[in-house]
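About this split. The held-out portion is used to measure sequence recovery: a designer receives only the structure tokens and must propose an amino acid at every position. Recovery is the fraction of positions where the proposal matches the reference. Here is one held-out target exactly as it appears in the evaluation file.
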């Protein structure tokens, strides 16, 4: 009776070694394939689990992105006697109303209450209700005889008028005179002005979040954009990554997104096109637009 492996003995020893080596090679290949398939399916399972987790948070992500993309109008405290053309535009005060205020101020008089502001400018009650909580008038000094602060808003005369300095011509020494603006903050303000080619609105002082709020209010009272500067324009359709990243209102991530967007969808035509990019500071849209060209 022949044994099952008798056929193997018919080969030479060299041939037998070759057959064994071939069988081992087939075994190794099969084992490697099994391991590969196992890892592949495990990875798919892991990816599927990750995808489920992402999807579970998608509603919250969509909500946050929607909130981020919405324009928010933020009004900071200000002295209504020193409203620039740009600020009037942002607040909803038309040119006729602004001119009435300017004529009133040219006479050497000041508005000292919300009602007086309405009487001079003729703004609608709805707008007055919106703006009046942010009006800031200088407070009457302490009454030395009574030792208490007066609550009555003072009436200013011409000799009481504060000398207003153009923020784009102010020196660091001028800025340091403001309580709360020291050597460091004055340097920041001047350096940012040089980067931009000039400020177009005193609202840009709010960009310096590290400066105390009271100092910001004083800055807006003592300085104004008297002459609109020739700002440094950035062409968003051909500016490089480095140029976009150096613009104070953009960071490197947003600069990359702008370049990617224009390379995939074509040139930007207006500022509204940029608002579609995730991470664009939409609340500063009007100011940023003055530094860009298309």
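Reference sequence for scoring:
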């Amino acid at each position: 009776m022949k044994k099952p492996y008798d056929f193997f003995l018919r080969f030479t020893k060299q041939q037998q070694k070759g057959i064994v080596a071939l069988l081992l090679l087939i075994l190794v290949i099969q084992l490697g394939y099994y391991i590969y398939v196992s890892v592949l399916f495990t990875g798919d399972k892991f990816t599927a689990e990750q995808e489920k987790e992402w999807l579970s948070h998608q509603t919250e992500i969509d909500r946050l992105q929607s909130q981020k993309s919405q324009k928010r109008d933020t009004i900071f405290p200000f002295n209504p006697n020193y409203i620039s053309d740009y600020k009037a535009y942002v607040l909803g005060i038309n040119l006729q109303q602004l001119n009435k205020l300017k004529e009133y101020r040219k006479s050497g008089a000041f508005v000292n209450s919300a009602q007086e502001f309405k009487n001079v400018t003729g703004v609608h009650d709805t707008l007055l209700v919106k703006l009046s909580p942010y009006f800031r008038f200088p407070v009457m000094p302490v009454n030395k005889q009574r030792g208490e602060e007066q609550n009555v808003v003072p009436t200013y005369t011409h000799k009481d008028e504060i000398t207003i300095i153009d923020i784009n011509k102010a020196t660091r020494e001028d800025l340091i005179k403001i309580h709360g603006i020291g050597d460091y903050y004055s340097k920041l303000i001047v350096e940012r002005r040089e980067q931009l080619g000039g400020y177009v609105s005193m609202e840009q002082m709010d960009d310096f979040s590290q400066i105390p709020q009271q100092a910001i209010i004083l800055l807006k009272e003592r300085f104004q954009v008297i002459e609109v500067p020739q700002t440094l324009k950035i062409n968003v359709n051909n500016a490089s990554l480095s140029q976009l990243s150096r613009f104070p209102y953009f960071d490197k991530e947003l600069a990359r997104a702008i370049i990617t967007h224009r390379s995939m969808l074509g040139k930007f035509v207006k500022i509204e096109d940029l608002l579609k990019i995730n991470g664009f500071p939409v609340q500063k849209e009007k100011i940023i637009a003055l530094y860009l060209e298309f």
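Annotator remark: DSSP finds 14 helices and six strands in the chain.
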